């Protein structure tokens, strides 16, 4: 069993497939060297398991590696130019690559020419990586650490620092810095912040941007630190719709952290809606909400639900008068249930913690009693019943359903039987 000494000085036995260790032994016997690289190494130093095994192979030609790997499973050369071999085995898939250099030759995230060279040193190959914490490697099978750019020291110092000026060739790395700052609770090195300020995001597609925001706001971590990196990089140049909450970015960061914690058990789509609502909570302009969201995603539910959450987020103040039953029902109709609204209010630092938690507990209890917490109430009076009375769809048909629903929301019609009796009386039947 191989072990790693973590940043805290503990011995950690990472989850490593035995087949990978055997393959690494075969590579070494053939004169090559195999390194685990990237996120796996970073996570191992933090005492965490990672199931993404990216292996870089040195001192061995591609033509020699393919037949060696073929003994273990099905190989697929992902792209000769990129030098990546995918190995599929029962219950396991691995990616093997070769050390390479990259030269920026065109516009956009993919405008690179890649040159593979198995004779490069680990230090030379790691120069192309984004941050020092991702530029470490561990040689297999012993997991000997190779850290040419001080990634361990930066992890210990909770510092996020770029490896080299080549960082500037890939604009996506700016947003990766935001999500890394959040996920690993890091602060941006001043020289990295200055470099990011000089770069543009204009060559990135909205899909790429959305994915990085999603990692920032949804992955476990401290989103407020991502916000500070966002501000230090001056990303308000591209996202001016993000405003301070009540004049304070500290409060906005606290809101993001509270949502990350309080919404952790909710479905991803719901968490994303609440995270975007909290991020935009300092901005009261509906046009800005739309501009930000449409520049980020085409997902219909997000485009619909985030503005609704923002619009109704101040429907009641936890420090003011409580909602009556009619208001609770109508708020549930507007928001299609009150679960997300409750989490948003419970997380909002604009209100005192004790007041907001007491408000949400009271709201949840009453909404559950009324049957409107998880989903909006539906009209007791249905079109099917009206047709059974001989009424044909039309203006009167719709008016009856709307009027009866208003009475239902006011608590004047308690069930379907009362709604149907009301309709018959209204029609003189």
Question: Which key features would you list for this structure?
Answer:
4 domains, 429 residues, 19 helices, Beta Polymerase, domain 2, two-stranded antiparallel ribbon
Secondary structure blueprint with pairings:
Blueprint: E1 4-5, E2 11-12, H1 18-29, E3 33-37, H2 39-45, E4 54-58, H3 62-70, E5 74-79, E6 84-89, E7 92-97, E8 100-104, E9 112-116, H4 122-126, E10 137-140, E11 144-146, H5 151-156, E12 159-160, H6 172-183, E13 187-188, H7 190-197, H8 206-218, H9 223-232, H10 249-262, H11 268-279, H12 286-294, H13 300-312, H14 325-335, H15 339-347, H16 353-370, H17 383-388, H18 395-409, H19 416-426
Helix pairs in contact: 6-8, 6-9, 9-10, 10-11, 10-15, 11-13, 11-15, 12-13, 15-16
Write a structural description.
The chain has 429 residues and is of the alpha+beta class. The protein folds into four domains: 157 residues, Beta Polymerase, domain 2 (2-Layer Sandwich), CATH 3.30.460.10; 111 residues, no CATH class; 57 residues, no CATH class; 44 residues, no CATH class. 47% of the residues lie in helices and 12% in strands. It contains 19 helices and 13 strands. The strands form four sheets. A seven-stranded mixed sheet has the order 5-6-7-4-3-10-11. Strand 6 and strand 7 form a beta hairpin. Helix 10 packs antiparallel against helix 11. The longest helix has 18 residues. The protein starts with a strand and ends with a helix. The model has no long low-confidence stretch (mean pLDDT 93).
């Amino acid at each position: 069993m191989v072990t790693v000494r973590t940043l805290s000085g503990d011995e950690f036995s990472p989850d490593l497939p035995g087949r990978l260790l055997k393959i690494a032994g075969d590579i070494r016997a053939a004169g090559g060297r195999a390194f685990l690289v990237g996120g796996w190494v970073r996570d191992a130093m933090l005492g965490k398991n990672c199931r993404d095994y990216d292996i870089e192979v040195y001192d061995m030609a591609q033509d020699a590696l393919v037949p060696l790997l073929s003994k273990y499973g099905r190989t697929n050369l992902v792209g000769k130019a990129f030098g990546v071999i995918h190995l599929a085995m029962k219950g396991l898939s691995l990616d093997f690559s070769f050390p390479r250099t990259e030269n920026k030759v065109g516009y956009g995230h993919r405008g690179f020419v890649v040159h593979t060279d198995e004779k490069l040193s680990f230090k030379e190959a790691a120069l192309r990586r984004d941050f020092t914490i991702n530029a470490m490697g561990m040689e297999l099978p012993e997991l000997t650490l190779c850290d040419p750019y001080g990634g361990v020291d930066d992890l210990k110092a909770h510092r996020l620092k770029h490896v080299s000026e080549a960082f500037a060739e890939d604009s996506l790395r700016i947003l990766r810095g935001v999500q890394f700052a959040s996920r690993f609770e890091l602060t941006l090195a001043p020289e990295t912040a200055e470099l990011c300020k000089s770069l543009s995001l204009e060559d990135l597609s909205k899909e790429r941007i959305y994915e990085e925001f999603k990692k920032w706001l949804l992955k476990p971590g401290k989103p407020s630190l991502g916000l500070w990196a966002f501000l230090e990089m001056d990303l308000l140049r591209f996202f001016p719709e993000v405003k301070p909450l009540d004049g304070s970015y500290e409060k906005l960061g606290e809101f993001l952290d509270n949502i990350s914690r309080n919404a952790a058990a909710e479905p991803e789509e719901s968490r994303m809606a609440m995270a975007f609502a909290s991020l935009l909570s300092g901005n009261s302009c509906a046009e800005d909400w739309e501009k930000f969201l449409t520049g980020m995603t085409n997902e219909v539910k997000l485009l619909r639900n985030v503005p609704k959450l923002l619009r109704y987020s101040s429907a009641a103040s936890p420090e003011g008068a409580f909602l009556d039953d009619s208001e609770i029902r109508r708020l549930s109709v507007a928001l299609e249930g009150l679960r997300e609204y409750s989490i948003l209010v419970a997380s909002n630092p604009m209100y005192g913690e004790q007041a907001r938690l007491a408000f949400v507990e009271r709201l949840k209890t009453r909404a559950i009693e009324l049957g409107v917490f998880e989903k909006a109430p539906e009209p007791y009076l249905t079109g099917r019943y009206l047709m059974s009375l001989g009424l044909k769809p039309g203006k009167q048909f719709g008016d009856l359903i709307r009027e009866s629903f208003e009475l239902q929301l006011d608590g004047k019609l308690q069930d379907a039987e009362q709604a149907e009796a009301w309709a018959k009386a209204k029609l003189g039947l």
